[in-house]
Specification:
The protein has about 375 residues and is mainly alpha-helical. Helix content is about 40%, strand content about 5%. The protein has a two-stranded antiparallel sheet. A two-stranded antiparallel ribbon has the order 3-4. A two-stranded antiparallel ribbon has the order 5-6.
Length: about 375
C-alpha cells in the first residue's frame, strides 16, 4: 500500500495554483522531499484514533481533550503538507484537516472543539491560536472549529502579560513564548516587557531552559531555545541582535556532524525541527553551511550536513520520521513535517542573509566542494 501511495504521489507532484491566503511565506530554499513528507502524513493517518466518539479522541491523536499533546502538531502537519504555493492558503489548510478522517469518517475538528472547551491558561489559548486558529483561518474571538455554536474568545484568554512581561510562571516559560507568537499574529507586535523577560532567561552559552532558568540549575534544551529565538525574531529583533546571535551560535555549536540535533544526548527529530525553524526565522538556509559559519565562524572548515538531509535520514519504512528511542513516534513525525516544510512556522522570517559560502572539506580527504549560496526568500509574515 505504501509503495502504491508513493507511486501516486510521484505522479501527482505538479504544483497547482490556488487562491485565498492571508500570509506570504518564505518557503524553504530546498523544498523538502515531497515523497517523504507525504509518507509521513500517511503515517499520521495510521495513528489517528478510531471510532466516532470525539470525547475519547476519535479523529484526533489524544484521548483526553483536557490534556492534549499530540493533536496540536499532527493537525498543523496535515495543514502544512497540503500547501501547494509559497502563499499560505487557510482554506486549503482547513480543507485538508476537514478531510483527514479516520475509518469512521471522523475528522479532528470535533476533538479540537472539546480542547477549546478546556482552555484555561493564556499559554493554552496562545498555542491553540498559533497552531490551529490562525493557520486554519478560524476566528480568534469566536473560535469554534466544528461550527457547533459554542465559541471561545482566544484573544481574551491570552490577555496581557504581567508586569514582568510573562504570561505564565517561570516553570511554564513555553506558554509565554507561544503567547508572544500569538500576540504577534493578533496585533503585529510583541510587548517589549515580554521581549525583555525572554532575554532575561537566556543562559551565558545562548540557550534557554523550559523553566526560564538563566543559570546552571536546569539544563538547556534545543526545543525551548528554538521557540525562544522564534519569539524574539517575531518581536522584530534581527539576527544581529546579541541575544539572537548568541542563541544561533548555541544551535550551531550543538548541531551534530550528521546534521541533526539531540535531546539530552539522543538524536531527536523533534529538537532538530525546532532548531531548523529558528534558523529559518533568522533568514538563513538550514541546508547551507553559510548559516553555521556566519554565526559560529570558528567552525568554518569542519564537517557540515544540511538539516533537511539529516531529518530525511530518520524516515522509516512505515512513513514515520523519528530517531530511535523517540518520545512518541506520532509527535516526532508531526514535528518533523513542520521542520521540513517550514511554511506556517516560523510565523515570521527575517530578510534573507547574504553571505559567502566557504568550501567544506570532504570527509574522505578529496577535493573540497562549494555549497551553493542560499536562495533569496520572501519574509514569512506580512502582518
Amino acid at each position: 500500500m505504501l509503495c502504491t501511495r508513493r507511486a501516486r504521489r510521484v505522479a501527482a507532484i505538479v504544483v497547482a495554483t490556488l487562491a485565498a491566503s492571508v500570509f506570504t511565506l518564505g518557503m524553504p530554499a530546498r523544498a523538502a522531499n515531497p515523497i517523504i513528507v507525504g509518507d509521513a502524513i500517511d503515517f499520521l493517518r495510521t495513528t489517528q484514533i478510531s471510532g466516532n466518539t470525539p470525547a475519547t479522541g476519535s479523529g484526533a491523536w489524544d484521548t483526553n481533550a483536557a490534556f492534549p499533546f499530540y493533536t496540536y502538531d499532527a493537525v498543523l502537519a496535515v495543514a502544512e503538507q497540503a500547501q501547494t504555493s509559497s502563499t499560505w492558503s487557510t482554506s486549503q489548510a482547513l480543507t485538508a484537516v476537514t478531510n483527514f478522517t479516520n475509518g469512521a469518517g471522523q475528522n479532528p475538528l470535533a476533538f479540537m472543539d472539546l480542547m477549546a472547551d478546556n482552555l484555561v491558561t493564556p499559554g493554552e489559548a496562545a498555542k491553540t491560536l498559533v497552531l490551529f486558529a490562525a493557520p486554519l483561518g478560524m476566528s480568534f474571538t469566536a473560535y469554534n472549529p466544528s461550527g457547533d455554536g459554542d465559541t471561545v474568545n482566544l484573544t481574551s484568554l491570552i490577555g496581557l502579560p504581567g508586569p514582568d512581561g510573562a504570561y505564565a510562571p517561570d516553570f511554564a516559560f513555553n506558554d509565554t513564548l507561544y503567547a508572544a507568537l500569538a500576540t504577534k499574529i493578533i496585533t503585529g507586535a510583541v510587548a517589549p516587557t515580554t521581549v525583555a523577560y525572554t532575554k532575561a532567561g537566556q543562559k551565558t552559552d545562548g540557550s534557554w531552559s523550559y523553566d526560564h532558568d538563566s543559570g546552571t540549575t536546569t539544563d538547556a534544551d534545543i526545543d525551548t531555545t528554538g521557540l525562544a529565538l522564534m519569539a524574539l525574531l517575531a518581536s522584530g529583533l534581527t539576527a544581529d541582535d546579541p541575544a539572537v546571535q548568541l542563541g544561533l551560535h548555541y544551535l550551531a555549536d550543538q548541531q551534530t556532524a550528521g546534521g541533526s540535533w539531540e535531546f539530552f544526548g539522543s538524536a531527536s527529530t523533534e529538537s532538530s525541527s525546532r532548531a531548523m525553524l529558528a534558523i529559518a526565522a533568522a533568514g538563513f538556509d538550514v541546508n547551507s553551511v553559510c548559516w553555521r559559519d556566519t554565526v559560529a565562524p570558528e567552525l568554518t572548515g569542519t564537517t557540515f550536513v544540511g538539516a533537511d538531509a539529516a531529518m530525511e535520514g530518520f524516515a522509516n519504512l512505515d512513513g514515520s520520521i523519528a530517531a530511535p528511542g523517540a518520545f512518541n513516534v506520532t509527535y516526532s513525525t508531526a514535528q518533523s513535517v513542520e521542520g521540513l516544510q517550514r511554511s506556517w512556522l516560523p510565523i515570521t522570517r527575517a530578510a534573507p542573509r547574504d553571505c559567502i559560502t566557504p568550501a567544506i572539506p570532504p570527509a574522505d580527504g578529496g577535493a573540497s566542494t562549494i555549497v551553493p549560496a542560499p536562495i533569496v526568500l520572501t519574509p514569512a509574515f506580512t502582518g
